[in-house]
Design goal:
Elements: H1 7-20, H2 35-50, H3 61-70, H4 129-140, H5 142-151, H6 159-162, H7 165-170, H8 174-183, H9 194-205, H10 208-213, H11 215-234
Helix pairs in contact: 1-2, 1-9, 9-11
Amino acid sequence: MLWPLGDVDSAASLLTLLAGLGHPVTFADGHVIDRAAALEALGLMREAARGSDPRCLSMNPINVLDTLSSADDFWYAPLTFGYLNYSRAGHPGRRLAFGDIPRIGAGPEPAGSLLGGAGLMISAYRPHRAEAVGYALHVAASATQRTAYLAAGGQPAHHDVWADPAADEVSGGFFSGTGRTMAASWTRPRTPGFVRFQNEMIELFGDHRRWMSEPGPFLDDLDAIYRRRGSVSAS
């Protein structure tokens, strides 16, 4: 098994597991990170890291997917961002099969997966804004995402693609395999202050020996960051 546990992805895994355990980070005024859920989540991550290749602690999802598709030494990754190019026909190396994330607890469906992805931004300081908006809407449209965007090797985001049998066939079953996870995914708060909290959280996860061996003190520091950034957000 491989689990991408570099600093960015350790932070993402913790956020996913907290949401899956029913205690998502809301960043709402007065909310705190649930201590018991965070300890359980770190325990799962620690157990997986100790039973996996040590390289996991410096791997990102692409490192993991490249390794899975290039050799038979490893077979499974429980949490990783999805890159459907690895499941397409013609991908160099072994084609990978993507499926829903593991269920946490007794829930009937997988839940809590951190929604990733990238967006299109239009600068307010450049000319031709109307044309840029038109192009962004074209790229994001259902018809484009299901056809030209997917055919060109893109990673579609439109909901309609997940229900399109033709797109699913092209992607080697990526969309049907991950549909339930996407439907129950978790989106990071857009509250002011959350981005700074996330960045400081990532820095904290940079010392993997600490979150693996000293989860209590590690969570003390994480809680302090959360309270500091949360108070900035609330004010």
